[in-house]
Specification:
Distance between the termini: 76 Å
Structural class: mainly beta
Strand content: 35-45%
Length: about 375
Amino acid sequence: ATTGQKLYFSQFSTGKVRVVVQGLGYQTVDNTSTFLLYKTDLGTYRPEGDYETFTPADTTPPSVPTGLVSTGQTSTTITVDWVASTDNFGVTSYEVSRDDGTAIDTGSSLTGFTFVGLTASTAYDFRVRAKDAAGNVSAYTANINVSTTAPSSDPFVAASPVAYYSPASIDPSVTTEGNSVTVWNDEINAYNGTSAGGAAPTLNISPGGQRQVRFNGTDSWFNVGQIAAMNFQGGTDEFTIVVQLGENPGTQGSWFTKAGASSGSRQYTLYNPSTGDDVQYLVGGTGVSVDNNLSGGDLIILEVTTTDATLSINGVDVITGGAIGTATESQDINIGARTNGSFVLDGDATRIVIFDRPLTAQEHTDFQTYAANNQ
């Protein structure tokens, strides 16, 4: 094409663009690629450098997302989900906003988001729109109005943990016992665990009506990922892991862990080793085990200071002054297995709560009382 000649771009077929050059005819190219437009006849090849490079402009916004609904609410969180938009080049992210002006770019094409830090018993409006790589933005969906629940009487929530995997936050869309649970949400900061094994854990309903997660002992667990707020290091950080067992306490497996195959470098893990020692911890590659015949509903608390560890079961200290190490590793955090998919839990878990500090004596009492009445 020479100076003054016009270029016309038009959709030719799925995935193709037809380029028409005034007075020279046309060429059909892939609309996702940069193509070569020759300065003279389109059908004549020229030496390298004797052309101009063009990339078809994307000016088409994605379609508006559909089916916006709320799939879970607590006193401080609301989860919303929607049906994916379509786009000629592909949706890259979604912007979810609420009526107080907060707008979150999800940074991915995932079709769901959890708002945290909300006020109890409060109504919020939510809407969502889609974005593509060229910066095109769809129109917003219509607003949906969703309310948080009443303030929780749950003392674990009141104690402001870093993360809380609670009975209420077990995949809210799953209500039938035995059905697959693909996500165990963290109702505090949305450090959610997603099913990572060959089979998803399942929902168990205890005789008392409590929602619990059941792990199969072979290939069902949740991956939480790399979470800076839970990258606890022995000798440096103080933290607490609380686990309430479910109806089936299990005979082996990991409850909560940032650890892989090498015992000498496991950053932290709380688990049942299946060797007659029913509870064992490792912090920085060092730990202690204890014989204790576990039962359904038991509450296990591991508290770690910068110098040692304390392990209690149902309010009784079974390890005090326990040794800890300082080793670290790059493994993800997992619920129900080590990060490499080994030592999978073969029992039920009712709740797992993580703190970035030791507990007070009153919290120990409150947690024990609440757990005993909710199992």
